[in-house]
Give the backbone structure.
Amino acid sequence: MRDTSARSAPGRGGPHGTGETRQRAGGPLALGGAPRGPALARTPVLLSDPRVCAVPVRDVGEPLTELDESFGHSHALVRASVARRLVLARDELPQGVGLRVIAGYRTAAAQRAIISSYAAGLRIAHPAIGAAELERLTSRFVAPLAVAPHVAGAAADLTLVDSAGRELDLGTPVDATPEQSEGACYFDAPQVSRLAQANRDLLARVLRGAGLVNYPTEWWHWSYGDRYWALMTGAPAALYGPVASDRVAG
């Protein structure tokens, strides 16, 4: 893994094959991976929730690190502590199973483009939608810019692979929208196969064990140190704020 000179902007043993919500009162709110079935009716905390934006940011100034080829060909950038935790998680996987990171740090411009594209599709599907509901529905798939974990270098979109590099069955492709997947992209979606559920549980076990949290509407999205992580774990502040693209060395 290679460190790049980046400083944050101020501010704000399992099967193979080819996640609960609590009231926050000085403690964690939700970690995902709740029992499937009727319990899924419990509403996940979304990134558009005002409580996420209310979390203070005390950026510790960690650089971005480029993940090496052992995590796949993306060479994604993530904060140094996120990279170390991904290594810890990978080392807990059964022999013959690996972690492939699809995406890490994302520029603010790239985040805005994803928001714009997805929101445009939602407006077509729901012509009478109001601004607040549009933001809520959009945030199931892409975070509002102000709190976006990817823009802070705090998040990784990832999956499991076998020893030949083939992706395991986790129920949907990475980045399947709620509409495309009919909700199967949610970590606790009851309609995915038992094999996919088991693989999701394996993924969650090693990543939670390394200190990351899942965004429950996207089984593949895990983060550490961002505002959502702080809210979910009861941390007093986020460790990372947004990283400006002009502070990322090529």
